[in-house]
Amino acid sequence: QVQLVESGGGLVQAGGSLRLSCAASGSIDSTYRMGWFRQAPGKEREIVAAIWWIGGSPYYTDSAKGRFTISRDNAKDAVYLQMNSLEPKDTAVYYCAARPADVNEYRYWGQGTQVTVSS
Fold it and tell me: pLDDT (tens digit, 9 = 90+) per residue, 84-94?
């Protein structure tokens, strides 16, 4: 089992920044892939960025490229999402998720943290 707890959401004006944190615990290991997803009201959940727990290059969806940065701190068992130049369209509940390397679907999810960007 893996437990994920997000933090760092909040209300920010357009153009501002937020840093989301995801604290991981349990049986997570170096083969896991970590992802940040978001779900806006009335829309489907979508991936924003992803990174391997150890090594590899990060992945970003087109809307996140150049504005968001995913990173990890293996010593702290944490994954972060630095979000800059935020826009009202980034308003959503943001989720941290994890999956083993041999599984295609993300298996473990956090409770989510609300990000609201005002215009």
Answer: 999 999 999 99
